[in-house]
Amino acid sequence: MSALTDPPSESFRISMLLSDTRYRSYTFQFIALLCLIAAVAFLARNLMNNLEAAGLNISYSFLNSASGYDINQRPIAYDSQSTHLRAAIVGILNTLIVAVLACVTATFLGVAAGVLRLSNNWIVARLMAIYVEAFRNIPVLIWILIIFSILTMSLPAPNAFRGDDATSSMLFRAFAFTNRGIYTPLPIMGPGGWLVAGVFVASLIGIWLFRKWATKKLFDEGRMIATFWPSVALFFIPALIAFFVLGMPITLDYPALKGFNFQGGLQIRGSLIALWLALSVYTGAFIAENVRAGIQAVSVGQSEAAASLGLRPRRIMNLVVLPQALRVIIPPLVSQYLNITKNSSLAIAVGYMDITGTLGGITLNQTGRAIECVLLLMAFYLVISLSISTVMNLYNNAIKLRER
Questions:
Q1: What CA dihedral angle connects 120, 124, 125 and 129, to 10 degrees?
Q2: Does some domain include residue 103?
Q3: Measured between alpha carbons, how far is 178 from 182 in angstroms, rounded to an integer?
Q4: What share of residues in the chain are helix, strand, coil (percent, to 5)?
Q5: CB-hemisphere CA count at 13 Å for 346?
Q6: CB 380 within 8 A of CB 92
Q7: Kind and range of the H or E element at 74?
Q8: What is the number of alpha carbons within 13 Å of residue 275 lying toward its C-beta?
Q9: Are 246 and 195 in contact (CB under 8 A)?
């Protein structure tokens, strides 16, 4: 019966690519893609012809030659006889270190400032407004230079710790704050040390899963489960048990003044601290505005309904307002993380050797391979930016509100 009532299916014809609305958009998109490929191919061929006419050729063999320069902040082993590729890897790691530190710190600072700016306390709200307006309206480079100058001028030189009471002058006899940076104890991993570290990472995952389970119980059954003390116990107890059971495999190398400088331990240079703090407070001001906008986008009736159920203001903010505000906060937050990563290229202003200072600076000047170095820099920042966008978009899809 249906075969008699259904219209006969029309066979596909080439002319339908333009006449039929079902295929026309795909046809135009395919033509546009072909034009784009042809334009890129023309520009690339033109570039190669011009380089060949100028006697230049694209080659990355220089990456295997000795760099011939030192890097002050080295997260991995490196010396002046290492290759340019090794120097680039050190620069990449330095960039990632400051970017991750600044993203985490800026997020905490921005969320706190954004929430406090809506506080009923007039003084607190005005102080947060002053912070936001002051830091986001002054270029980040100026803040980098200001913080670096404060660190180098206000902190004492290492020789100030010289004498019989040198160790007592250090904070907790383990931390030294100098104009060359901060010296802290360095963990030394013995046999089984990485197993303890793995237990600690597993504890962090367990805390996240436990709190997620507690939140699900609250939303599904209305049961409020205490999460603070169980989280504290999971944070410390499993790692401590593994530490003592395995015979304390992790020891600390303490910094000690030898000669004109501290030896041993871990040195966090003032350039890294200045760049980290400047990027954090500068971007935190923008994140604070994003958080404030997200909170104000949530209907006041949501807070009033939660208060009528007896929830305290802190619980209302954590369980009702912020989860709904995330759909407004996350998209601009992605842009701020990208800005932190790209603004880290200002590190050369204070002598912090990131990827721009190594590959795009000294290596480029020594080898004269400007095109190759710039292309590698572009590829690095593009990959990092796309990775951040992908991760944050996945998180945004996971926490966005869904209609029932």
A1: 180
A2: yes
A3: 6
A4: 70, 5, 25
A5: 18
A6: yes
A7: none
A8: 29
A9: yes
**Which one, of 382, 396, 400, 402, lies nearest residue 333 by Cα?**
396
CA angle 108, 110, 112 (to 5 degrees): 70
Task: Tally Cβ neighbours within 10 Å of residue 13.
Answer: 9
**Tens digit of each residue's pLDDT, the chain (404 residues):** 444 555 555 676 776 767 777 777 788 888 899 999 999 999 988 888 887 787 777 788 888 998 888 888 888 888 888 899 999 999 999 999 999 999 999 999 999 999 899 888 889 999 999 999 999 899 999 999 999 999 888 888 877 776 555 555 677 777 888 888 888 888 888 888 889 999 999 999 999 998 888 888 877 777 778 888 888 898 889 989 988 888 888 888 888 877 777 888 888 888 999 999 999 999 999 999 999 988 888 888 888 888 888 878 887 887 788 888 888 888 888 899 999 999 999 988 888 899 999 988 899 998 888 888 998 999 999 999 999 888 888 887 877 666 55
* Count of Cβ atoms closer than 10 Å to residue 240 Cβ: 13
Q: Which two tokens stand for residue 203?
A: 């504890």
Element (H, E) at 187: strand 186-189
Q: Is 121 inside a domain boundary?
A: yes
Q: Is residue 301 part of a domain?
A: yes
Q: Domain count for the chain, please give it.
A: 1
Q: Is residue 335 part of a domain?
A: yes
Provide the residue range defining the domain that includes 260: 84-159+167-185+254-399
CATH code (residue 114): 1.10.3720.10
